[in-house]
Every structure is written in C-alpha cells, then in structure tokens.
Fold:
Amino acid sequence: MNESLPRPRASKALWLDAAYELLISEGIDAVKVMSLAKRLNLTRTGFYWHFKDISELHAAMIDRWKTQNTGNLVARCRQDASGLCEALFNLMDCWLDPMLFDAPLDLAIRNWARVNPDLQVQLSEADNLRIKAVTDIFTRYGSSKEHADVRGLTVIYTQIGYISMQIKETRADRLARVQHYVELFAGIPPTEEEVAQFLNRHRLTGSGPHREMSAV
Structure:
C-alpha cells in the first residue's frame, strides 16, 4: 500500500452532517474546521475542497434547516385534506417524523440566532412563514381571519414552547395526545376514521426502536 496517498476528503454531506451534530450537541462555537476534521478523522484540506470557508458552511447549515424544517412544515400545511382535523393531522406528522422536522436542530438554530443578528432575521422570517402556513389552514376551512390568526399563533407558539423547554415524551405518549391537540386547535373533535388513519401511518413507520421525543 502506498502510504503517501492522501486520506479521502469525504463528501460535502458528511462534513455538513458532522457540523450539524456539533451544532446540536455543543452549539455554534464548537463548529470549527479543526474540530470537524478530528471528528471525521480527516484533514482540514478536505474541508476546503467543499467549502470556501467556515461562513460558507454556516450558510449551508442554515439553508438545510430552512429546507427541512420550514419547507416541510409549509408543505404539510398545504397538503390536500378532506377537512380541518385531517389538515391538522397532516401538520402533526412533522412532530412525529424527524425527517420532516428536526426539533433539536430547530432549538440549536434558535440558540445560535441569539448571538447572530443576521440569523435572527432569517429565523423571524421562517417563523412568519410557518405561522402563515398554519393560519391558512384555518382560513381554508372556514375560520374568520381573527380566529385563524389566533389559532395559527397558538399552534406555532405551542410547538416553539415544547422545543425551547426540551420536553421529553415517548412516541407512544405523543401518539396518544395528538388527537387531543387537534381537537383543541380545531375546536371540533376529529372523527374515529381520521384518528385511526393518523395513528396507523405512524405505527407502521415507528415500529422499531425510538428515542424520547422533544416536541408536541
């Protein structure tokens, strides 16, 4: 074996994944090129193959957060539904599926924004997009503008509260509670069919080992 061959640079996604892990576990101050290289057992040169500098990595992290958390949430709100409760269950999918919405990442971004004014602006824009998307659900299914505004704020502020307080609950506990959240937000009880449809799709996808959940 030729020992003079350079170690692999790894993929851009691998560097980005490592940065997310550090952001979530230790905060933005821990996301440094040398720390990432040590974590991946790679050289710093590999990092600069994919990113011009640490600022470019930061921008990529923020873009990925926007796409995953805000983008998916807005898409779920716009998904076709037969009524208000089904539409809210579509949104609640985000709180059960970390591939749709990553709660620990959202908390890490909020903490980062406390010390980064530019990110705080982007976070405020993201929250406004989320609030509008949820508010539009209520408007679409007959709520007045005033009621839709308050209900949309209630849904989002409840979720932000869960994230900020780092509430821990098992998947089973969350599944048992979601239908009651939907009834509270909607002002009407969901049908047995709507509840069963929601529970079935998450029981089918959540049959393996799972960690405690940290959002509604």
In short: The CA atoms of residues 85 and 160 lie 21 Å apart. Residues 1-6, 207-216 have pLDDT under 50 and may be disordered. The radius of gyration is 20 Å. The chain has two domains: 1-51, 62-205.
